[in-house]
User: Fold this.
Amino acid sequence: MTATRAAPRRILIIEGHPDPSRERLCHALAESYREGAREAGHDLRTLILGDLDIPLLGSRSDWEKPAAPPLQTWQDDLLWADHLVVVFPLWLGEAPAMLKAFLEQVLRPGFAFDPTRTASVGRLKGRSARLVVTMGMPGWFYVAWFGAHGLRSLRRNIFHFVGIRPVRMTLFGMVEGVSPARRRAWLDGMNRLGRLGQ
Assistant:
């Protein structure tokens, strides 16, 4: 079955694995998505977090300051995009600390939400996202037994908070020792999502 050609979108792909090695499954999944999106005519930008120097925030006053370079460039990428694809491994039930540090740096008050309102008004409305997550356990088990709490929190408490929705999730479980055929099927699926811009 051939994927329907989607209207061109501006897509920001965020590779959230702390290890920038191109041998990682996360990179292969992101690359397959990128190839499909490129072939379908979508506009693309990529941030590979393992290649970036992402400082940790140490105080509330630091967080409330306007972002300085290169953080402003990363914020510009978010403003440019109308769809985000965030690819990362599940570590201790949640996103790696590097991805969380990146989000804390770029989603500052005044940029991502209005801090003067009693109820937050997200300033990144009109954007959608897909979280692509690899894990050692079966994906269904993470959802059924653990409730996917780490990912649900990321979706609700961060992405929805700043106005990004819908946020869809694609889980790849039992990634250690996966067969070549199954890996190929995963990559083909990501290529189709890329073509669709989803």
